[in-house]
Amino acid sequence: MPSKIRGRRADSARDDWADMPATLSGYPGPVLQITASGELQPLNDDGRWLIDALDRPAGQDAASRLLDLIKQAIADRTTTRDILALPTDGDDRVIDTTVLPRGDRRALVVGLDTTESRAAIRADENRYRQLVDIAADFAWETDKNGAFTFISPASALGHAPGALIGKRARDILLREPSKAAVLPFSAVAAVRQEEIWVRNADGHPVCLAVSALPILNEKGLRCGARGVCHDVTSSRLVDSTDARRRVRDRVVNHILDSIRGQPNSQAMLDTAARSICKAAESDACEAFLFGDDGRPIRVASFGDTGIAERYSYELVKRIDVSDLHRATVAGRPAIGMLTGTGGAPTGAFLIWRVEPGADWTDDNELLLVALREQIGVVMSQIVEQRKLETISRFDELTGLINRRFFYEELDQRLSQSIQRGRRGSLIYVDLDNFKAVNDKLGHDKGDAVLRKLADILRANTREYDLIGRLGGDEFAIWLDDTDANVAAKRGENMLIASQAMSGMSASRDKPLAISIGIAIYDPRSEETRDTLITRADSAMYQAKHTGKGRLALAPPVERFAEQRQAR
What we know:
Layout: E1 31-34, E2 40-42, H1 45-55, H2 60-76, E3 80-86, E4 93-103, E5 106-113, H3 118-123, H4 125-135, E6 138-143, E7 148-152, E8 191-199, E9 205-216, E10 222-231, H5 233-238, H6 240-260, H7 265-279, E11 284-290, E12 296-303, H8 312-316, E13 325-329, E14 332-341, E15 344-352, H9 362-393, H10 403-420, E16 424-432, H11 434-441, H12 443-459, E17 466-471, E18 474-480, H13 484-497, E19 513-521, H14 529-545, E20 551-553, H15 557-566
Parallel strand pairs: 19-20
Antiparallel strand pairs: 1-2, 1-5, 3-4, 4-5, 6-7, 6-10, 8-9, 9-10, 11-12, 11-15, 13-14, 14-15, 16-18, 16-19, 17-18
C-alpha cells in the first residue's frame, strides 16, 4: 500500500473489475478499487467525487482513516468498515464506508451516503448487500438462540443451499466452547475480525474472521445477530509458526504475571507448578529450589506423578542448564528444566505425563524452552523473598519453622492432600522432664536440648516434610503421603534416636525423653486443620499420661468425635 491515497480518474479502471455486476455503474454511492499497484481508482461518478473530496485539505482526516481501513482489510484479509465525514460547501456528507479485500493486495471500497433519510438507505440496501456478497465469503443472521436464519450465499462452507438454516452456529465449531463463551454468531456487542475455527460440510477445519453486530428489536432488546465471514484459513496456516509463537509468548507472560501477583513465595511457587503443568498439557509438575549446599529441595507440586515421584531428586541432578532434559521414568515421560540467572541455577521444574507411553508435542517443548528463558528472574526473586520470609517465619533457636508459619503451611499441605487424594500424618512431639533441665541446669542447657531434638526430628524425616516448633518444648511434623504404619515407624525411630538425649537430663530420676501423638489425615473426611491438631495433641498427652517416652495413635476423626461427645 502507498503511504497516501493516490487517485486516478481514468475510465479504464473498470477493466480490472470486469467480473463485477453491471449494477456498479448505477450504485447510488461511491465505488472505488485498490489495484495491486496500490492505486485508488473510481468505478463510478460518485467514486470520482469521493477521490476529489479526499484530495482536498479538508478531506485529509477522512483520507487518513480510509487508508487505515484499506491497509487493515488487505493485511487481515477481512472486511473493514468505518464512517467518513467529508466537509462540503454545506453540511458534512457522511459516508458509511466498507472495504472488501479481493486478494493480491486488491480491494473494493464501497460507500453509502447516510446523510439521506433512512427510507433512502433501505431502498438501496439490496444493492449494498450484493456488493458485500461479492467480497465476503458469506453473510449471515442468527436468532436469539444462535441458530442461523439467513445465509448468503446459501451454500456457505460447502453446505447445500439452506442446509445451515435452523442449525446452531455452535454445532459447526471445530471445538466445543465453554458454556460461558459468547460466540460472535451470538454477539451481544460489536465484534470485529474475531477468528474462530469451524468445520465445513466435509468436516475439514476452516478458520473464519467474523465481524458481527447484535440485532435489537423495537424495545432495544437483543433478538439475534448479523455479520459477515471471511475464510482466512490459508493465511493462518501459512502464518501458523508465528501464530504459535505469539500464543506461547502470551502464555509465558500470563504465567509470569500470575506468579508475580501472589502474596508470598510459597504461593508463587504453587502457582508456578500449577500454571506450568496446565500450560504444558501435563499431568503433574514439581518445583525445586537449591539449598546453600546445592542440593535440590522440592518446594511445590501440582497433580500426581504416581510412583515416578520417588525418582524426582535423582532426575533433577541430571538436568543440564543449557537444555531441557527428557527422560522416561517408571514408564512415565518427564521433562526437566533448570532456571537461573548468570549461569547459576536457582531452581528446577519436573513436568510429568502419568500415562505410560505418552509423548510430548513440539508445542509443549517450545513453550517450556520459552518459559525457561524468562522464569529464571522470577525464581531469583522467589529465592530472595524466601530469605526475607525466613527472618519472620523461622524459630531462631532451632531453625525450624514457627507456629504461625507451620499452620499456614499445614493448610497448604492439607489442600494438596485433598487434591491428590493421598493421606498424610500429623505428629505431635513433646519433651518429657524438660522443665527440670531449665530449673537445675539453666536455660543454656535447655536451649541445647531443644536444638538436639530439632536435629533428631530432621534426621528422621524427609527433606520436604514439614517440621515446626510450636513453642516451648512442643514440636509438630507433617508427613506427606503416609498411612498409620509408616507414621508409626517414623515415630518409633524418633523415640529410639531421642535416647541420645539421656545424658543431657537434669537427674536420673527425671530422664529426658519424648512423648509422641500421631493423627492420620483422610482427605475424604472433610476434617478441619484445628480438629486434626486437636487429635494429634490429645494422642500426645495420652502417651505422656501412660508413662512418657512412648507413642500413641489418635482414633479416626469420626470415632474421636464420638468419644468426645461421650465424655
